Automatic annotation (TrEMBL):
InterPro entries: Acyl-CoA_Synth/Transferase, Acyl_CoA_acyltransferase, ATP-grasp, ATP_grasp_subdomain_1, CoA-bd, GNAT_dom, Ligase_CoA_dom, NAD(P)-bd_dom_sf. It comes from Pandoraea eparura. Residues 496-532 form the ATP-grasp domain. This is GCN5 family acetyltransferase. In the N-terminal section; belongs to the acetate CoA ligase alpha subunit family.
Amino acid sequence: MTTRNLSQMFAPKSVAVIGASLRERRVGTTVLQNVIDGGFKGDIYPVNPKYATLANLKCYRDVGDLPQAPDLAVICTPPATVPDLIRDLGELGTRAVVVLTSGLAREQDRHGVTLQDRMLKSAKPHVLRILGPNCIGLLSPGIGLNASFAHMGARAGKLAFVSQSGALTTAVLDWADAREIGFSHFVSLGDSADVDFGDMLDYLASDPGTDAILMYMESTRHARKFMSAARAAARNKPVVLIKSGRVPEGARAAASHTGALAGADDVYDAAIRRAGMLRVDTTDDLFAAVETLARLRPFYGDKLSIMTNGGGAGVMATDALVLNGGKLAQLSGKTRDALDAVLPTTLGRVNPVDIGGDADLVRYTATLEALCEDPETAAVLFIQAPTAVMPSLDVANGLAALPKPSKNVFTCWLGGATAERARRICREAGWPTYDTPENAARAFLEAVNYRRNQSLLMETPPSIPPGFAPDVARVRAIVEGAMGEGRALLTEPESKGVLAAYGIPVVETLVAQTPEQAGELAQRIGFPVAVKLISPDITHKSDVGGVVLNIETAEQAREAACQIRKRALAAQPQASVTGYAVQRMVNGAEAFELIVGVATDNVFGPVLLFGQGGTAVEVIADRTIGLPPLNLNLARDMVARARVSKLLAGYRNRPAADYEAIYLTLVKLSQLVCDVPEIAELDINPLFADAHGVLALDARIVARSPALPGHGRLAIRPYPQELESTVDAGGKPVRVRPIRPEDEPAYKAFFHTLTPQDVQFRYFGLIKELSHSQMARVTQIDYDRAMTFVATEKDDAGNPRLLGVVQALADPDNTVAEFAVTVSPQAQGRGLGRALMEHIVEYSRKRGTGELIGYVLTANTRMLTLARHLGFVEDKEMEAGVLHIRLPLQPMAKAQDTRGA
């Protein structure tokens, strides 16, 4: 359940306060007064059998006495009363309720069922939406609604704030009021028994009164729903959040280094980044980031140029930038020449640029123009300290009168009252402005991170890298064999067999049952070799002396195996020693030791890890986390964020590692996770990486039955290869498959084949070109919510050529999906349009979509004829020349169930 009936919750025409009271310091008293004082224009119904009137309003004995079903009800009564009230309100026709009462998840009825479960069961038949329980309530200041027991109201504005913390909710209200910040909606989620972050993101993403979404998050439960909603919202408007709980209370036990390293906060951080949102640390940062993002134009690069009329301020900004991972731009020769023409010879031409305390407005503007033209500069930070020569107010007015620069400019005005007037002028002119160099530098870094996250948002990886054909059957046989023996931990040779089946290079490893056989196998492999313990009861071999390296003879190999057994049993007498792994020693003199792995998070499911490896991996704690599925771009981002990435570039006489081989290893592991749901934990430690590629020296895999089957355990649905098929188009087979991100060039070429009439019928207007962002929205879809099928054939060069495209974009509740279909002129007349429409109808029906709708120009007679043949009915004329058509896909009862699921 997502956005159904949320409009009644956030834009009601009537409100009932159940448990309204006159007693001081009662929640019901505060809520009723807040609803009245907020200026709500709709009907207000107090409900309490103890009163005939309350606040000059008629008071009703119970829900059954109400004159009509209120759009919104606010419940302020004891826990035991809530389930029955929900039932009564649902039967009356109310579809939105705020439950302020706490304790429902703890208290049980006489059958042992929690009151919260009873409440949800009572709401389900009516699709009645519940905010809370245990929440402060909600405010929609634009309609004067304050359905909360907050201590104050909120100003109307364009920001939406959603919080899990009631205490933070009221604190932010107070904080924002002092700064004259207004809100479209202000929502306390409480225990989120029904309405949660995913629902709110879906609702606010399409709310025209909301320009940006701010959130305070402690946790979320439904990862797939949250990620789909977050990615959809972040495509439309900035989403900025504070996520609490950065420091874990203690390391959890895990059978792999990856499991121990992949802390919950790291996983949330990866999810936030992948969803295109921005994470900040404080309330100040939350609102400052929104102001920054709202004023920025799109930009590229991550290097900053700084100009200031005081050298010290420039140094402070540089320190703040670099210490937080930022970079200064290296000014080009052309930029330095431009500065020569404007700056006195006594001042330098390096970044940060000191223009001198005696600078006039010409020097300010000329320097700014030069830096904005610098090719390496992504943005400029302008810092001004007040001087008698050039007052801040004069500089601000001069900047405000300039045409918008070609680059984003962050302004910082040092000082008090005079500086504040300069800041106000800049804000009104649309320039981001700050009161300290540190805050300005931090704002630039947040903008860089936001832009990077937005680029990650546009990545929807294919399920299989091109040319990659893993032996999935072999892996399933290995995993099922181990689990059939009651083992969760695969042996090292089994783990390496899994990796080899997915094309990850592994060091040659043979299995010996006895010390004598270890000596024989060592002789066969060739020296030097390593001998390692194989035991299902011992996870980390080196901890019990279970690894001996650099063995030069068969006798040494036999003795090593004997000593390994003695040490293992001395450390763990109950352990079973099932054999010994004998492997060739690898010369890793120029190799970097890395760790790559998989862990399973309780919320987001499988996650991937990359970092610096070796025996001290948990002490070094250099790791980055990513969510599968990955493509090469996402893998590249994971590697770049690890500290070890700087070493991988090479230094002194050590050559750089083969980055592409590392990226591909991560992508292959991602595919392994997508294909084999039993892979719960996996380590490759160390993974040797050098100029020639990668090699897995040691591997450890834990297999368990997944909590959810198939792709359901993944937070992001990968490319659904199972939906690929072949259709007949005029007697010729045509491949029909879901669209992929890499189809963008082919889609662009397809668009250029369309006639002006085709474009008119499809887009209702003459469009000469589709921008990259427009094509990205078509080719980079969330397969869990939308579907686009393309009909393809190979061109002469073997590249895919698009012949037709059909899409269905469902609402978050899957009640309605809007379709669109286009066929290239070269493929028209072959029945391809009908085949594609039948394809999308069948897909939508199987997905449980309630109905398929479309908007068709009356002049598009071919489409209207096809639609009638497929069973569509012409519902109504939306405007002159545009027909709304619809095709019900589910029996009525089933469609209703789907909408409330």
